[in-house]
Design brief:
The protein has about 150 residues and is mostly helical. The protein has a single domain (about 5-150), classed as Arc Repressor Mutant, subunit A. It has eight helices and two strands. It has helices at about 5-20, 30-35, 40-50, 75-85, 85-90, 100-120, 120-125, 130-150; strands at about 55-60, 65. The chain has a two-stranded antiparallel ribbon with strand order 1-2. The radius of gyration is 17 Å and the shape is globular.
C-alpha cells in the first residue's frame, strides 16, 4: 500500500468533516482554507469520496458536505482506497524485475499496512488528545492569519 498525497489530503479533509459534523455540512471552501488544500483539488477528491459513499453533498444555503456514515464506520484504508483506487490499498508496488522472495515481502508488507489502516477509524483518530490539541492550534493559527489578511 502506498499512501499518496491524494490519500493524505483525503484523510485530512475527512477528519475536518468529522470534527465539524455537529455544525452541519461543511463547505469545501472552508476545508480549503482551514487545511491549506486547493479548492479544485478538494473538488476532485470529494467526487471520489462521494462515489464511494463516504460523503454526501447538501445543496442550498448552508450546504456543503457531510459524512455519509458515522465516523466509527469509516476507516483510514477506505478513505485512501476511495481516492487512490482499491488496488492501491491492497497491493504492493514491486518492480517487474523484483525477485519472487522480495515481491512476496512487499506484498505481505502492503497487506499489513492496509490491515493497520483499516483498523483505525475517523472516530479512533479524533479521540486522541494530541490530535485534538494539534487541530485546535492549527485552527487558531489559521484564524489569526485570516484576521491579519482581512485587516490589511
Amino acid at each position: 500500500m502506498r499512501l499518496s498525497t491524494k490519500g493524505q489530503h483525503a484523510v485530512t479533509a475527512m477528519l475536518d468533516l468529522a470534527l465539524n459534523a455537529r455544525h452541519g455540512p461543511v463547505a469545501l471552501a472552508d476545508i480549503s482554507q482551514s487545511q491549506g488544500i486547493s479548492l479544485s483539488y478538494l473538488e476532485q477528491l470529494f467526487a471520489h469520496l462521494r462515489r464511494r459513499g463516504l460523503v454526501e453533498g447538501v445543496r442550498g444555503p448552508g450546504g456543503g458536505y457531510r459524512l455519509a456514515r458515522p465516523p466509527q464506520e469509516i476507516s483510514m484504508a477506505r478513505i485512501v482506497a476511495a481516492v487512490d483506487g482499491p488496488g492501491a490499498a491492497r497491493t504492493a508496488t514491486p518492480g517487474a524485475d523484483e525477485q519472487p522472495a522480495t515481491r512476496e515481502l512487499w506484498t505481505v508488507l502492503s497487506q499489513r499496512i492496509y490491515d493497520f489502516l483499516d483498523a483505525i477509524t475517523l472516530a479512533d483518530f479524533l479521540e486522541q488528545p494530541e490530535v485534538r490539541e494539534r487541530i485546535a492550534r492549527a485552527r487558531l493559527r489559521r484564524a489569526r492569519d485570516l484576521g491579519r489578511r482581512s485587516a490589511a
